Amino acid sequence: MKKIIINGANGYVASNFINQLLGQECEIIALVRGNKKLTANERMNQVLSHLNDEDFIGNSKLKVVNYSLNDENFGIPEDEISDIFRGELDYYHFAASLKYDFKSKDEIFRTNIDGVKNSLSIYNKYAGDKSRFFFISTAYSCGKYNGEFREQFHDNEDISAFRNYYEQSKRFAENVIREFMEKNKIDAHIIRLSQVVGNSETGITKTDYGIFDFAKRMHSISTRYPNKEVRVKVDPKATQNLIPINEVIKYLMFTVQTSDAPQIVNLTAKQSTQNTLILDGLSTLIPLKLVPVPELKKEEMSSIERLVSVGMSFTGSYIDTDLRWETNNLDALVPNDGNNNEDKAILKMLEYFIGTLDHSKITKKVSIAS
User: Fold this and answer.
1) What's the angle, vertex CA 40, arms to CA 39 and CA 45, rounded to 5?
2) Are residues 87 and 178 in the same domain?
3) Whether this model's pTM surpasses 0.90
């Protein structure tokens, strides 16, 4: 039975990966950080219950271990961590800080760079020679790269080459792995994800990151200021690269099942989605007319438009992007299945997501009334 270790296991992609792995013949060890409110096991069970519509009661294939990313041996006793890493295994490093601003720089680098260094050190100390290390990076480690971002390592650059410290930290972490591979001869792989969204087949969307965070904010504003026309500082022709969670999991499962995984893969969508489609889609789902105006100045904004602008502190960095990534390694291993209607899938996801927000609002009203 294959052993798979996953850190940051209660995150969106990692938990979906585990949910799929539970149907395979493998031993899964989920490294999760407990907090003051919930134990590691409770946090893992909570997210798996959420993915399974609250129908999850545990699984004998899954072992949850409390850990601390930057501590020696992850804060796990020597005999236990030695046993965790014993034998041939695949190790997936998902743990990351998703913060991006300057004031969080130290935390971002401590998690996304120092955490990777510690993870590599522990892996190298305890894992067997035939084991593999997979690092979950971001396609946006490309920064402000002009051209097709190749499936290869790229040198570190100053923050001016990136939109934020999250992007820079991931580039730095990739090069930490490159140097470690050269020195210690480990079998390591880089998987660069673009913005992960919901399921392209069902529309089910259980993330509120990226465009869905924006959708949630617009939904909230529409309940306070319904039927308003709101200009948004967005380039309507610019694009978002949105990779469905089911496509991500399909590829991750491939890495488990093959011994021929590429060293670096840009796991991105075949077709990017124009901003105008997202704005028009939201305008049909909520009582708000969103109008893209690329050169909208702050002094020209209404009070509602300024409120929208404040809520775009992160997404605002990506409203004028039209990035391109090489996908030769991805295409060679996971051929295109011919289903290219990404726009229709994104609209289905937005409809599902807004529906959950409306349902939550109704549920709260009923609860208060009763």
Assistant:
1) 95
2) yes
3) yes
